[in-house]
Amino acid sequence: MSHTAHIPSHRKPRRSASKMALRAGVAGGVLGTIAVAGAAGPANAEPVTETIEMPTLGSLDAAGGLASAVAASAEASQQEALDQSLQTQEDAALQKAAKEAKKAKAEAERKAAAERAEEARLKAEKERQEAAARASRDSARTQLTSTSASDDGGSTASDSGSQTQAPTGSAAAIVAFAKAQIGDAYVSGGTGPNSWDCSGLVQAAYRAAGIDLPRISYEQSSMGTSVSLSNLQPGDILYWGSRSGSYHVAIYVGGGKYVGAQNPSSGVVEHTMDWDTPSGAVRIL
Questions:
Q1: 14 near 41, Cβ under 8 Å?
Q2: Percentage of residues in the chain having pLDDT higher than 70
Q3: Are 270 and 258 in contact (CB under 8 A)?
Q4: How far is CA 233 from the centre of its chain?
Q5: Which residues pair with 185 in a beta bridge?
Q6: CA–CA gap between residue 202 and residue 214 (Å, rounded)
Q7: Cα-only R_g, the chain
Q8: CA 94 to chain centre
């Protein structure tokens, strides 16, 4: 073979120019193309026919920021929903409280009106009872006057006899106790020893004679036997009002007089029968 003959080369063909380019992302998301060529490639190298795209640090940071923004937005939406829920609950609670307050106010006003009506009823009833008691006293006084006139001084004789009749036994003890309290104060509910109400004085006077009486005036006037005002004896209980519904009591002490705890302004006093004529009398002894 001639030494000039062409011998094929077994060396691997060398790229004269890189056909691959690296596409890289740049900051701001703009992609650029980097052509990679040999260190000493010829000027007439082949054009780039292959590219590789790679993310840059800037694009990764942008993706992370977007995720953070999405998460923050979701958290803000959740917080707003929670705030709206709390506001709704607060509004509902305020409305409920307002309704309950309005209901309570209406109930209080209803109770106050009922109490005022009851007070008015009680006042009217008291005035009616007092008017009836006054009418009863006036009637008794008129009847007593008529009886005295028709009997030609019979009752006067009785009273005259009472003036000279000295009480004895239990009656004397009752009369003595009652007279001993003249000048003491009147106190509603008083049972002694220095202040009394009418029934408290009568009860204590009878207790001094060893006799127990009820505490209330109408109960005391319901005891014993009814006697006329023209036939009284010392120690008899005088009452004002009806016998079973008396509102005041006193003790007849003889001589046409009685002793009783009258009222806060006068206290325990002795009066003649005509000062305030009783409605009736009962005898316990």
A1: no
A2: 65
A3: yes
A4: 55
A5: 195
A6: 10
A7: 60
A8: 22
Output the 3-class SS for 217-237: HHHHCCCCEEECHHHCCCCCE
Angle 277-278-280 from CA coordinates, rounded to 5° = 140
Return the DSSP state at 211.
-
Helices in the chain by DSSP H: which ranges?
57-150, 154-164, 169-180, 198-208, 217-220
The separation between CA 40 and the C-alpha centre of its own chain, rounded to angstroms, equals 105
Residue 239 · residue 281 · CB < 8 Å: yes
Degrees to nearest 5, angle at CA 73 with 67 and 77: 145
Q: Which of 275, 269, 153, 260 is nearest to 205 (CA)?
A: 260
- Structure-block tokens of residue 45: 């190298």
| pLDDT for residue 27 | 43
**Token digits for 281?**
């009398």
In tens, the pLDDT along 141-173 reads 455 444 444 444 444 334 434 444 567 789 999
Structure tokens at 60: 């990764």
Q: How far is CA 38 from CA 9, 94, 240, in A?
A: 21, 81, 142
- Only one residue has tokens 């010829």, namely 42
Q: What is the pLDDT of residue 56?
A: 53
Instruction: Give the amino acid at 108.
Output: A
Q: What is the structure's pLDDT at 19? A: 47
Rounded CA separation 19/36 (Å): 8
Token look-up 């490639």 returns 41
Q: Is the Cβ–Cβ distance between 220 and 202 less than 8 Å?
A: yes
On the question of pLDDT at 195 being above 70, the answer is yes
Q: What's the CA gap between 19 and 111, in Å, rounded?
A: 102
Q: Is the pTM of this model over 0.85?
A: no
